[in-house]
Amino acid sequence: MKWDEFSGWGRRIADWAQDYHLTVGDKPVRARTEPGEVLNALPATPPEGGEGMEAIFADFEEIVMPGITHWQHPRFFAYFTSNAAAPSVLAEFLTSAIAPQCMLWQTSPAATEMETRMMDWLRQALDLPKEFQGVIQDSASSATLAAVLTMREKALNWQGNQQGLFAQKPLRIYCSSEVHTSVDRAIWVAGIGQQNLVRVPIKGDWRGMDPAALRQAIEADIAAGMQPAGLILCVGGTGTGATDPVDECLQIAEDYGLYSHIDAAWAGSAMICPEYRHYWPGVERADSIVFNPHKWLGVQFDCSAHFLKNPDDLVQTLAISPEYLKTHGKDGIINYSEWSVPLGRRFRALKIWFLIRTYGLEGLRQRLRNHITWSEALHDKLAATPDFEIVTPPMWSLWTFRYAPKGASDLDELNLKLVNAINDDGRIYLTQTRVDGDLVIRFQAGQFETTQADVMMAHGVITEIAATL
Length: 469
Ligand SMILES: *Cc1c(COP(=O)(O)O)cnc(C)c1O
Description:
Blueprint: H1 6-23, H2 37-41, H3 53-64, H4 86-98, H5 109-125, E1 133-137, H6 140-155, H7 160-163, E2 171-176, H8 181-189, E3 197-200, E4 202-203, E5 208-209, H9 211-223, E6 227-234, H10 246-255, E7 259-263, E8 288-291, H11 293-297, E9 304-308, H12 311-318, H13 323-327, H14 349-383, E10 388-395, E11 398-403, H15 411-425, E12 431-435, E13 438-444, H16 452-467
Parallel strand pairs: 2-3, 2-6, 6-7, 7-8
Antiparallel strand pairs: 1-9, 4-5, 8-9, 10-11, 11-13, 12-13
Helix pairs in contact: 4-14, 5-14, 6-8, 6-12, 14-16
The structure holds pyridoxal-5'-phosphate.
């Protein structure tokens, strides 16, 4: 394809994308594909000769689209949303056309400086203190890995990268039972070992870490000759929105000199609204905080905002060229590849800029508030419906429930059947989790274009399908 043929196709794809977003609500949310269907529809060997875009695009519609689960569907209530607001998609289109590599200031000054400015906009949007600086990571998993590596290096007096962990005291990292699996994987990759990830028991409605148990666990480890290195807190856990008592836990981290990281991958977006900040009191005491604008805020995937109170700790952990340590931030030059594990970096700040300018913070706040209000209304309605019980209360827009008709014997099996039947039906999409061993169904609202009617429609679908079981 020659570049002078590009714009025709570009226009056609823009038309297609607009139409897709305007009509996606008419499709079943979850793909109805059987395993292997798409694989078998694709030729086993690559073509030797070139083909025209017409044929490629026709196959895209015929083979690919039926195998897509529609994350941009307004009744996507499963997992967490992965939004793609229109202006952020346009920014991604531009980014992919320019295709800059943003590893060093010099390799893309505009991307670097836009990233600095956008991370500061987000910092202000969350009302974090000025001392926090930010970097855009590809995912919360990467941010958490970077934080765990920093915990390791700090605890080893910056010798871990050089000497490895051999012959060191076991490093201990603390978290609750509700953290995301990305924490486990960060611990594995950092060489700390799963057995040194200490899961502190939870208590209370927020299903957060018990601070007294945290202190006891640290004391016991010190007494046993181990080395406490870090604390990972969760604000808005994936299963039920579990949230640790941030202030009390960070006080303990300070008492024992532990590096602290907060995973607010999903719920962090809601912190643009002042009325939800009581969920993370004392957040300014954390060393590292991550949230994903690519989840609830509306930025096209991928875009993870990582805030650091002292970026030098991270740079000292990850920078490969120590001379930059002396200058970073001081002469106005930041090389963001020294703040993240991958070297190559995409220009992700542009889509934050497009999104925030299009809606303004107030427009984004209004969307999130609507999601929470509508989700609570659905919760109230289902709570008042016979044979349904709420298992965990709304945390932001997430809550869990069970179908528990009188006389039902195996509720786990019944609820798994229900969630599968709902998803086969296709009008809405839900996922399950476990709470204290029981299988429960999650509901969360957060798709960018969802409406009150979309959310309330879930009540009819859930009760109608449950009655058929
Ligand atoms: C989604 C999620 C993650 C993982 O996010 P990625 O950006 O996909 O790595 C981590 N923690 C929590 C609480 C999440 O909800």
